[in-house]
C-alpha cells in the first residue's frame, strides 16, 4: 500500500504528482528544484545557493516521512551544465557522510523545469 507524502516545508507540486510516495519502508521522492517554499520564488543567485535550496527542500520531504539523509540509498542529479558539477557536488557532499553516502548518478540534460540549473530526486529506506 502506498502512502502519499507532502509537506508545506517544500514546494507544492505543480502538476499531477506528489512530493514523495512511501511504499512499505521505501520512499521515492519527486525531483526537487530550488523553489523557496515560503516565497514560492526560485533561488538562482548562484549555483551553490540553488543547490542548497534543492537540498533543503529534499530535507523537508525526507523529514515528512520521518527520514533523514542517512536513509537515502540512491540519488539522481540532473544538471543543465556539467561545468557546474564541482560546485553542486561541494554543496551536496555537506549533507552526507562520505562513508555511508548513497549510490548516485549525475546527468547533464538539455533543460529542466522552470529552466533551473539542478534538480535532485532520491530513494530512501527506513
TrEMBL record:
GO function terms (MF aspect): deaminase activity
Superkingdom in the source lineage: Bacteria
GO cellular component: cytosol
Organism: Bizionia argentinensis JUB59
Protein's recorded name: RidA family protein
Family to which this protein belongs: Belongs to the RutC family.
One Pfam assignment: Ribonuc_L-PSP
InterPro entries: RidA, RutC-like_sf, YjgF/YER057c/UK114
